[in-house]
Amino acid sequence: MSAPDPRSTCMIGVAQSVVRPADGDSPEPLAIWEQVVRAAAADSGGRGVLEAIDSFNVVHCQSWQYDDPAARLAERLGVDCRHGHYSGMGGTTPQLLVQHLADVIASGDIELGVIVGAEALATKRRMKKDGRRPEWSHLAADRNPYPFEDPFHPAEVAHQVFQAWLTFPVWDVARRAHLEVAPDDYARAIGELMAPMSEVAAANPYAWFPEAHTAEALATPTADNRLVGYPYTKREVAVMDIDQGAAVIVASHAKADELGVPRERRVYLRGWCYASDPLYLAEREDLWRSAAMAGAGAEALRAAAVGIDDVAHLDLYSCFASSLHFAADALGLTLGADRVPTVTGGLPFAGGPGSNYVTHSLAAMAQVLREDVGSYGLVSGVGMHMTKHAFGVYSTTPGPIEWPDEAAVQARVEGEPVRAIRDEAVGAGNVAAYTVAHGRDGAPEWGLAIVDLPEGDRCYARVDDPGLLAQMETTEWVGADVDLATAGGVNTVRH
């Protein structure tokens, strides 16, 4: 094997933390950042790693908004902040930060960077319930709690198409109908997909819910496992109110040598790619698949010079079953007990700390690959409403730097057909996909349908009739002919 390229990018140190409710209140996020960065530096086995950090990259924090996150972290560490970056929101963020560091490392602008994030959302929720307020440091004067990169479509605003537990089920319902699987069978299959994931979480010391569940227990609605957004139960969706943190230190191969990082601690970025699907839920012609996932996943594997069968370890973004299903379809995977899609346990069981989950993926994957020398691992991230997609392929084995052709991948995605979205619609339509939102008591509250219109465009529509809601959860409603009415910019299904 030839000598590694000195500019090859590798993870050299990783760390995670968790503070569960039984342990009391979590420290503030800034303190967690400091803790896990120091631990990651120690994990590297190198000398002077903290002092050598060129770039501080902090993942967006929902728990608390600091005035200058990167600079405050560097200050806590006693290190100069030569380059600082604070990310926006999104499940792709940590993998994209690794890719960014690979770019700047290859250019010679930096040699060593850290990616870190943390949330203390469980503590913050508990404080609010107890009538307490966090007294954390360096609060920003101007706060923007939801720095979304893109605006919502006016029709999505009118029909309240905001929440992930409403949008991600729509994708799975469309996929189920495409595969011609009965609703009950599909619900059982989701439980069978996620049960092995819960077993991984049970063995993960950093998991929020380190408890294994049977497929039946996951898929069956009960008083403590209510339906959230049909067909998903509470235990099958990402848990956000957690106190967790993670850090990954990334260096050039040459810098790792200089710092004395042992070869057995290094995990190399071998291939990567990012692509995005159409922004709005109803735009895609095929609601049951992701062209961007297929393109980005294939390109990341091509850049790494491996096939999916060469990948021994996976951590696919798992906020909902649809993100797993779409990724598996895109990559040509059959998931199950013999091919578990996570090394953490996934967002429903290990925990979903806002935009920082993939940092936990990377940290856990690095440890797995260190123990399985020469094997390959694949990590994915999903952003917005199944819109943004990032893939990274990793191995302890270095290889040549092969840059992905992201522009070509994106061009192919943008060549896919799209549907125009009509704000208001009256008369006949045909259901393309749907879901039913449930309240905290488990009862159905209202339904969302994406409806194909005779002219070829689409619209969103509410379903409020209790009889229709019951039909939506017991029969196949995709393909059903419906009659639409509209008032105040909101479409409704009459029958």
CATH topology of the largest domain: Peroxisomal Thiolase, Chain A, domain 1
Number of strands: 16
CATH architecture of the largest domain: 3-Layer(aba) Sandwich
Contiguous uncertain segments of 5+ residues: none
Secondary structure layout:
Elements lengths: L8 E10 L10 H16 L10 E4 L10 H9 L5 E4 L6 H15 L4 E9 H9 L24 H5 L5 H16 L3 H20 L12 H5 L7 E3 L2 E2 L9 E10 H6 L8 E10 L14 H14 L6 E5 L5 H11 L25 H15 L4 E8 L4 E8 L10 H9 L12 E12 L5 E9 L5 E6 L2 H9 L6 E7 L2 E4 L2
Features:
single chain, 495 residues, alpha+beta, Peroxisomal Thiolase, Chain A, domain 1, OB fold (Dihydrolipoamide Acetyltransferase, E2P), nine-stranded mixed β-sheet, five-stranded antiparallel β-sheet, 14 helices, 16 strands, 22% strand, globular
Tell me what you see in this structure.
The model has no long low-confidence stretch (mean pLDDT 96). The protein has 2 domains: 9-130 and 239-414, Peroxisomal Thiolase, Chain A, domain 1 (3-Layer(aba) Sandwich); 427-493, OB fold (Dihydrolipoamide Acetyltransferase, E2P). The chain is globular and about 70 Å long. By secondary structure, it is of the alpha+beta class. The protein has 14 helices and 16 strands. α10 (291-304) packs across α11. The strands form 3 sheets. The chain has a 9-stranded mixed sheet, with helices on both faces.
In short:
This protein is an alpha+beta fold. The protein contains 14 helices and 16 strands.
